[in-house]
Amino acid sequence: MDGCTRFQIYRKIVFPLLTPIIATILIVDGLWIWNDFLLPLLLLNQEPARWTLPLFQAQFKNEYAFDFNLAFASFLLSMAPMILFYVFMQKKIMAGVTQGAIKG
Hints:
This protein is mostly helical. It has helices at 6-34, 38-43, 53-58, 68-101. Helices cover 72% and strands 0% of the residues.
């Protein structure tokens, strides 16, 4: 690429090759951050106004009972953003998986 700066080479050659990997990392890290329970439990457990969604979901279970209706409704609502994110990034992930399988 004659006449291209380093940034243009990165933008036109390197970044398109990295998009499937970046999409996969975003999905895996997003799931890990979204479902994290222990760190918020240790840091944010002082007041309910600062709780994350997994901390609220843990409150549906106590020593003697489990509120299935509210728990499963909250599980469904908490999965929705990650499922939507995966649906939009699915083409990038499949491109990354198949790109390594094709002999060039």
